[in-house]
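The instructor's notes for this session suggest beginning with a concrete chain rather than abstract definitions. Hand out the sequence below and ask the class to guess, before any prediction is shown, which regions might be ordered.
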Amino acid sequence: MSPGLKECETTALKLPVTDRAILVEHLIASLDVLDDAENERLWVKEAEARYEAYKQGRVSARPAADAIRDARAHIRWPLFTCTGVRFTGLDVYENG
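After discussion, reveal the predicted structure:
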């Protein structure tokens, strides 16, 4: 870690938890550099590859309702709590 980055981290860690959560959201959002058209192209490519793998018998399928039910069973809401702030996905809520 560069000295400048270390200094930035030290400063950020001194922020109130809500401000740190907002900063994290902004930093994560800044990593999303693809425009909508590129995102769409990549998702179509991925969907086509998955469908081809399914047709060739390399992957199995199951009903979406079963997959969603199983995913929900493994998620605990809220995802985690931190000193007065509840995090659910990328949304931040003040506990009150």
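Then share the key points. Strands lie at 80-82, 85-88, 91-94. Confidence is low (pLDDT under 50) at residues 92-96.
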